[in-house]
Specification:
Blueprint lengths: L2 E6 L4 H10 L3 E6 L9 H11 L3 E4 L13 H22 L2 E7 L22 H16 L3 E6 L2 E2 L7 H11 L2 E5 L3 E2 L2 E2 H11 L9 E4 L6 E2 H14 L8 E5 L19 H7 L6 H10 L1
Parallel strand pairs: 1-2, 1-3, 3-4, 4-5, 5-10, 6-9, 7-12
Antiparallel strand pairs: 8-11
Helix pairs in contact: 1-6, 2-3, 3-4, 5-7, 7-9
Length: 289
Amino acid sequence: MSKSILLIGSNGQVGKELQQILSSYGNVISVTRPTVDLTQPDTLCSVIRSKQPQIIINAAAYTAVDKAESEAELATDINVTAPLILAQESQKLGAFLIHISTDYVFDGNGCSPYQETYVTNPLSVYGQTKLAGEKAIQETCAHHLILRTAWVYGAFGKSNFVKTMLRLGAERQEIRVVADQIGSPTWAQDIATVIGQMIPHLSPEISGTYHYTNSGVASWYDFAVAIFEEAQQLGFPLKVERIVPITTAEYPTPARRPAYSVLACGKISTILGTYPPHWRQRLRQMLAE
């Protein structure tokens, strides 16, 4: 039976992919600003109450990691208060809430992939607000799926690491990239696909937190090298000749980032019966598209 799905944040890099993928899973109502402003609780409540969806997917977030250090109030409105309202309205409706979270809820002091049950300890305002949003949902809405992911890039959205590297690579001969932060680059299209694949499985029994990224690990430096290798083969206009590995200390940023934030994806893979594809393969496909 076709489900009624409300997609919030349909203009972002995951949201745009979800718009294309969700149509085969139900009747999708996509909303974005100005129809819904996550800093204005009333607009959220009224759209949910008027549409009465069976599934609510929140693909919107405040994701400017460094700016969040000086815009904590705005980050809190979007990453904590809005998810709380979504959870309250979902609970009243008996709807299932799907919410996207982040690897930045961990401090990165580990050296093996983070399971869903591992202790969280975010280092940044962004990570703290995302974790507080998770907790608001867990405490408020019985039927929820929180999907933590990492290092997201895609064809849509204003900016991401791949787009930034391609822009800099077309302008500069030398680019310096941090080599001591380790994670799993993840294509936005794969996140959207896995959310779609989870919809038929939604039930009270599977409520909870899940990790999903592409498989394999890389540093930002490794990721940059791969971007330029793949882009060169595809004929992208590039000037770059040297990519120089540097330390986090050599590239200070307002927000602290986890040094190691690889997520273990076994829990969701068991439900779906498939393991996430490798990040390098997906990068190649995204650039080709």
